[in-house]
User: Fold this.
Amino acid sequence: MQVLPPKELSAYIKHYLFLENKGNTAQQLRFFSDGNTGIVFSQKSKLIAGLNNSETRNYLPGSFFYGQPNGFKNIYSDNEILIVIVVFQPNGINQLLGVSGSEFRDAIITIDGIFGSAGLELEEKLAEQVTIKNRLQLLNHFFRRIEAKKPQTNQLITNASLDFILKNKGKFSLSQLVAYTGYTERHIERKFTEGIGLNPKKFATIIKLQHFLSLLKNKTGNISLTSISYDAGFSDQSHLIREFKKHTGITPREYLHNTGKLTNNFIETFPKNTM
Assistant:
């Protein structure tokens, strides 16, 4: 379930996600970038990052912040899951905390490492709630307090660049971005990376992939993968498959037929169909 934040928080938080899977068998979950950062609260059981050489499970914290990921990450669950995710706007955490997004690149950080003891208190109180309504009230109250204390940051270049990239669904040239913002390529890249954690071109590729997933989800009739590839801004189908596999670890066809979609960028992977 996806829920929008109140208007006064929408510049920082894109949406909240509430995901539940009552199965108690082992699950392999795959997470990849959608251009945003976020906080995960795993409320039923801890997620597993993987196994070490002695087959000991490496558990993720009960709540953690994730930065812009490099590629994809596999995580596992061997029990029922109830996950609450706060999905920030691409530069939301930079606006709220004044910390460069590049410092969080590919990082997983415990919630107290981001918000101190207030983060741990939020985790405990959230675990006590039994309804989505109460969880939302708690989250909104917490982030209103954070927003009231946020530092002053200059988001002019980042916001202008972000708006241009999103409106064009990632299809643009750097010369067009320079012309649109009126700033040099080097200055745009520095400010954008500071705010988002990725440079404009890497961010644009992720946006194009997300646009492709949207087109794939809504395709009708006999529209081909090649046609959707062009519509999403890729030069050809092989270009799409190469970028898609680089970021997700699977092909578009495998994504479509061999995964369970919890969200666009958070899936349960199944064995390949050998039929």
Summary: The radius of gyration is 19 Å. The CA atoms of residues 234 and 240 lie 6 Å apart.
